[in-house]
Amino acid sequence: MDVRPDGIYVWAFMDFKRDTTDEWICTLRQVMNEYDTRNEHLRCLAYFSESALPTPYSTSQAISMLRDRPKSLSISAAMISENSLMFGVVRFAMQQAQRVDFIRLCKSEQEALAWLDERHTLFEANGQL
Known about the structure:
Elements: E1 2-3, E2 9-13, H1 18-38, E3 41-48, H2 56-68, E4 74-81, H3 84-96, E5 103-106, H4 109-126
Helix pairs in contact: 1-2, 2-3
């Protein structure tokens, strides 16, 4: 995980081994709680390499994280994948959770960053999403 100068958290996934998944979920839960406490807008950009194939474990952990996130959290997550299977799994996970309009599947980094900027402008104008 890296944080860009504009505050966007960037994750680059090369695999979904159990330890990779556990580290990602633990870190993301911590960051979500910090942003929720401070009432700030959490922006995430996730890259999935072609070799990053989802596992039943990673999928179940992602669904749990989506369901358990703080409901007052203002979050925007743009995802870019080289693997179309990943988008199918993300769509499945989104169907298992409620209110997931904060996730956008994007075809390019330019599209993802434009959407994250649009959401951040909306947050700054309203103080929430």
